[in-house]
Amino acid sequence: MILALLAGPLALAQDGPAAPPPTQPQATPPPAVEPPAPSLTLRRIGSVAQPSAEIAGYDPLGRRAYIAGGAFVAEIDLRRPGYPGWVRQFDLSEAAGFPSVEVDREHAAEVTHVAVDPSGRNFAVASVCPRDFAAREGAVVFFHMPTGVMLKSLKVGFNPDSLAFTPDGSTLIVANEGRPALRPDGGVVDPPGGLSIIELSGLPDVETLVRQLGADRVMTIDLDGPVVEQALAAGAAGPRIHPAAKDNPALDLEPESLAINGDRVYVTLQENNAIAVFDLPSRKWVRIAGLGSIEQTIDASDFDGGIKIAQKVRGLPMPDQIAAFTAAGRTYLVTADEGDDRGDSNDRSAPRGDRARVRDLARWNKMSPKLMSTADLSDPVIGRLQVSVFDGDTDGDGLIDVPTMFGTRSLSVWDAETLQRVGDTGSAFEQMMADRDKEHFNAERVGSEEPPVFQFDARSPERGPEPEGIAIGQVAGRTFAFVSLERPGAIVAVDLTDPANPRPIELAAAAASGDVGPEGILFVPAEQSAASEAMLLVCSENTGTLSVYRIITR
């Protein structure tokens, strides 16, 4: 029956003013027993382009990748990893009941994430967000990988941004960002953020899934209630809340990325500089922890005449992607601390804009007299650095005492039980770019010319290299994090064998190879690779490329 069903079109089942965070206390993990350190090299062996590429899912049985970008999912053949081949493209915007991309590319629905069922049932899923994301719920679309037939479309929460299966495939978890949007009358629409839990147990194959998967298997849990009240009561130690949202702070919480470990789901709240913890058995939020701030040494200016990693600046981690790993019997979280803002504070089209340059805060008399008299706020130092307009007010008088930037330009390691920071890579990412790919140091792509043209150092006052994507893998007996640096493009391997001492050991200059804006990154272990060796799949949004990297150890 299922073969006949999948041979032709299938009708879809459509179902319906905050104080600055404190510096995080440091926790000391138990010492790790380390095997000999390997020499690790990342070698780009193949690439294929499509209109857009942001996130990758991988089918180890079919040796195929599924790439989310724009309103589509592209299927890529990886049976010869050095020669990835474009197979076909699925338009999921119509499948989810949203406007077709052919009508208006600029305002079409967006596929935000894709994942492959880990239990071998031959289907994959993609989250789809409508253009009116703040007023209309998103959807998750199920599709049959061998035929490309759309199987189901289920409504989830507002602005689904990422999703992941539990390892056994029994549950699909969707992070609904719930970001605000501006109404035509100038007001703000701010939907709730949270998780949608889709129960997939008892569905052993695609045929059963088509018959039995419906809205009754979807539970959407908003991020609100006692756990939010408790977190907010912590004041500066809690999540970062925009002052404009003080009357309903729960709506300001925006889930971004998630990692699953056992019965717990760890969710980054990027704009809120926090991690939320969700308990799967009870279907309840159990904790929200603010991530504090950390002082980093950075290159803070594009007017300083070149590479000068010399300014000490306090930053909020504000992580994008998150992953979990285990060392010496303890579970740790690792985050790519990109940082994010909600737009220029003077831009009326940016709901809850929170960004300004240091020099502008000084010009607006928004800085404390002490800071104005003691700090060098000139453009070659920190004057052009983009900072928060309300974080860093240590005495609550409405004036900034400590300029606080978005992101820390680093990778952080956190104890999963205490959510205390145990390790951080500091300024290593910027220093590695300076040492190994100086031409693209904190560079910005200019225009759309091919080959790409870059403006050197342009991103130094604006989050620098922007670590965004993260993947964990075991190689040669050690645990590594592989991190994508979005601006303009590099991949870094970080040795996590000692969680308190994350060591970046290799950098692959993606931009120098033609891949600009890497975001999603996925680790493929050797036993799942057609080449019988570990690989990385890297999606670069700016150039629309999926690139394959060999992980070579000696």
Overview of this protein structure:
With 554 residues, the protein is mainly beta. Among the domains are: 51-222, 7 Propeller (Methylamine Dehydrogenase, Chain H), CATH 2.130.10; 224-254 and 270-290, no CATH class; 341-406, no CATH class. The protein is 9% helix and 39% strand. The protein is built from 8 helices and 38 strands. The strands form 11 sheets. Strands 1-10-9-8-7 form a 5-stranded mixed sheet. A 4-stranded antiparallel sheet has the order 2-38-37-36, with no helix packed on it. A hairpin with a 4-residue loop joins strand 33 and strand 34. Mean pLDDT is 92; it is low at 1-21.
Q: Strands of the largest sheet, in order across it? A: 1-10-9-8-7
Beta strands, count: 38
Tell me the CATH architecture of the domain at 51-222: 7 Propeller
For the terminal residues, how far apart are their CA atoms?
51 Å
Largest sheet: 5 strands, mixed
Helix content range of the residues, please?
under 10%
> Roughly how many Å is the radius of gyration?
23 Å
* β-strand amount: 35-45%
- Going by helix content, strand content and strand pairing, the class is mainly beta
CATH class of the domain at 51-222: Mainly Beta
Nearest-integer average pLDDT: 92
Spans of at least 5 consecutive residues with low confidence: 1-21
What is the count of DSSP helices, taking H or I runs of 4+ residues?
Answer: 8
CATH topology of the domain at 51-222: Methylamine Dehydrogenase, Chain H
CATH superfamily membership of the domain at 51-222, which one? YVTN repeat-like/Quinoprotein amine dehydrogenase
The rough form would be described as globular
